[in-house]
Amino acid sequence: MHSLEKMLSRGRTIAEPQSLAECIDACLNCELSCVVCADACLGEREVEALRRCIRLNLDCADVCGVTARSLSRQLQADDMLRALVEACARACSLCEVECRRHASMHEHCRLCAATCRRCAECCREALERQQLSTRGDDAAAAVDV
Amino acid sequence: MHSLEKMLSRGRTIAEPQSLAECIDACLNCELSCVVCADACLGEREVEALRRCIRLNLDCADVCGVTARSLSRQLQADDMLRALVEACARACSLCEVECRRHASMHEHCRLCAATCRRCAECCREALERQQLSTRGDDAAAAVDV
Amino acid sequence: MHSLEKMLSRGRTIAEPQSLAECIDACLNCELSCVVCADACLGEREVEALRRCIRLNLDCADVCGVTARSLSRQLQADDMLRALVEACARACSLCEVECRRHASMHEHCRLCAATCRRCAECCREALERQQLSTRGDDAAAAVDV
Amino acid sequence: MHSLEKMLSRGRTIAEPQSLAECIDACLNCELSCVVCADACLGEREVEALRRCIRLNLDCADVCGVTARSLSRQLQADDMLRALVEACARACSLCEVECRRHASMHEHCRLCAATCRRCAECCREALERQQLSTRGDDAAAAVDV
Fold first, then answer.
1. Do A51 and C39 touch (CB under 8 A)?
2. Any C CB within 8 A of A52 CB
3. How confident is the model over C9-47, as pLDDT tens digits?
4. Which of B7, B36, B115 is opposite residue C36, by nearest beta carbon?
5. Residue closest to B56 by CA, chosen among B88, B92, B32, B102
6. Residue-level pLDDT at B64
7. Contact between chains at C51 and A54 (C-beta distance less than 8 A)
């Protein structure tokens, strides 16, 4: 079993640390992919045509990073987390669409579009299966009350 | 005029860089306030009673930081940004409520609750006045098409 | 007394929460200023001439944000923190120099150069006065042993 | 070839995108591992004994995340990057030592210590082989001058 998955399965009632770990992993991959794609776009001759791509990359990188962190915490799933994962799914989709427009010209855009797509899918699955609503029941909250 | 506000008023069609700057400012203050409150909670004798407060602080800090960054970019307001600002408002409210529970015992919680409240208000105002939908019309997008 | 300063003065032996708060504040201002300047640069007609400025802005924004967070924690000052504040001072200086090259053309670069300079100064002062070496002695560490 | 590696090999003169990709990957793994370990520590019964571990985890997570981002940018390696990678190596080592103290009690600390160790090693190798000094020579800088 993967190390992250093992760490996530401790102290949680959620049945599937595996799919949670996959979603977190997809977010981190997407964050990095977007940072690299933004930077590679900046280095292209026709950078003016890539401005929107760069901005969407930067937005997407930031949102993915925070979503990964938030998903890693043992708080009860709530509206906050749902809104955040929703924002993440949308940021990934926007970025994917834009990257795909440049995919035939730029390999980094082609690769980034694929990473964005996978992350958007993971986020949407998490929202649909309502895993988010069973993420928590954290021991800390119990102690806290 | 404040330096951030000046920078934001360049290249934007949005009528009110001032309220945008206020919202960004509130997010950054809240990020830092939550980082400090989490750390101060960790140092308290009764840290077990503050676990949930610490986790909400960490979540809130991360979401506020990213929201500030995203609000600073000249992308057209869209569902992504709305979902993110919504997540931010909720993170702040959750954190405010929890901090207030400890406010009589811990000055840092009392101060942090106030900062969270202000940030939540700024975010909600931005959502309600629909400023977010007029944020953009970015020059870059125009060039890009 | 400023709210952050108040929060920082709790539970610390460091004599001067004020200068610590100033440094943290300078880091956060610089983070945001760099995010905004990078975005404004991306929107300029002559974006190809601003690539290096954008990259330095992004680097500087990230390092400043993390330095602010790290300075906010009650850990004993050590080589890690010194290296980080050093990295922050250098990132700010690199970014200031580059921004100043474009200052006559772009107001956002002129403003950003000033914010970077101030942050670099705060970081260097902190390193020189060796405040960093008295930051900690945290209660938690004592409990921990 | 791994997707990140492919993206990094575009537009760079550095001979070894592979080892750079490994280092970036180690940083991201460490960031997440530390976020999860901090959260798991917060959930433990004896949380008071883990305060220092939590703080070091949070510091390490933040520094690792920024180092990964900075390593991904096509800027010439310089003193800033060296100081940052140095800070990252030290943060990882501090965190590893502390996590190892709790490794027999807490599986998450044992796993996190291993991830920290690997990241520290990657960073030190990068510093020693002076790969960092050949990272850049970025096309953008050339255009920029």
1. no
2. no
3. 755 533 367 788 899 999 999 999 999 999 999 999 999
4. B7
5. B92
6. 97
7. no
Residue type, B1: M
pLDDT, one tens digit per residue, over A88-130 is: 999 999 999 999 999 999 999 999 999 999 999 999 998 887 5
Nearest to B39 among C40, C74, C111 (CB): C74
The CA distance from A60 to A54, in Å, is 10
> At C102, which amino acid appears?
H
d(CA D131, CA D137): 12
Task: Please give the structure tokens belonging to residue A109.
Answer: 């855009």
ipTM (interface pTM)? 0.85
> Considering only CA atoms, which of B62, B27, B52, B46 is closest in space to residue B106?
B46
Helix (H, G, I), strand (E, B) or coil at C16: coil
**Average pLDDT of the residues in A74-101:** 92
Give me the pLDDT at residue B10, please. 59
Tell which of D50, D57, D58 to mutate to test the B interface (max B CBs under 10 Å): D58
A1 CA: distance to closest CA in chain B (Å): 26
Judge whether D2 is closer than 8 Å to chain A, CB to CB. Answer: no
Q: Which of C42, C55, C58 sits opposite A51 (nearest CB)?
A: C42
Token look-up 């937005």 returns A59
